[in-house]
Amino acid sequence: MLLIHTLAMSTIIIAMLMILLSLALSKKNSQHADKNSQFECGFNPLSSLRISFSIQFFLITVIFLIFDVEVALLLPSILSIHKVKPVSWIILMSLFTLILIIGIFYEWNDGALEWK
């Protein structure tokens, strides 16, 4: 038990010493801040990094992801048609698709798909 405590404490002490040593040896070079900044395609990085974009892009992305997940769920379910009654499988898949179609028509009627 004493060995475990000794190893744990020595590990913590060594880790703290390594952190303090790296902080002491690292040089903060603030006089050449431009040399340490990112350089991309020749553009000056000192401009604002936040670019505003339309919420319409976000809505289209969410709708795309919903229908992408629908395809990911429908395609593997084709393999299960032999394990259940085909009529119940068709009803279930039609209901699943109908719910998504109702959702897209709701978004369309709500005006979420119209660019302003």
TrEMBL record:
How this chain sits in the membrane, per its record, is: Multi-pass membrane protein
Instruction: State which residue ranges cross the membrane.
Output: 7-25, 53-75, 87-106
Q: Give yes or no: UniProt keyword Transmembrane.
A: yes
Q: Write down the EC number.
A: 7.1.1.2
What are the entry keywords? Answer: Electron transport, Membrane, Mitochondrion, NAD, Respiratory chain, Translocase, Transmembrane, Transmembrane helix, Transport, Ubiquinone
Q: Which positions are tagged coiled coil? A: none
Q: Return the GO cellular component terms, semicolon-separated.
A: mitochondrial membrane; NADH dehydrogenase complex
What is stated as this protein's family in its record? Belongs to the complex I subunit 3 family.
Signal sequence segment: none
Query: Catalysed reaction per UniProt?
Result: a ubiquinone + NADH + 5 H(+)(in) = a ubiquinol + NAD(+) + 4 H(+)(out)
| Superkingdom as given in the UniProt entry | Eukaryota
Compartments where located: Membrane; Mitochondrion membrane
InterPro entries, sorted: NADH_UbQ/plastoQ_OxRdtase_su3, NDAH_ubi_oxred_su3_sf
> GO MF annotations for this entry?
NADH dehydrogenase (ubiquinone) activity
- Which function does this protein serve? Core subunit of the mitochondrial membrane respiratory chain NADH dehydrogenase (Complex I) which catalyzes electron transfer from NADH through the respiratory chain, using ubiquinone as an electron acceptor. Essential for the catalytic activity of complex I.
Which one Pfam family would you cite for this protein? Oxidored_q4
What organism does this protein naturally occur in?
A: Cymothoa indica
Q: Does the entry feature the keyword Transferase, yes or no?
A: no
Protein name (record): NADH-ubiquinone oxidoreductase chain 3
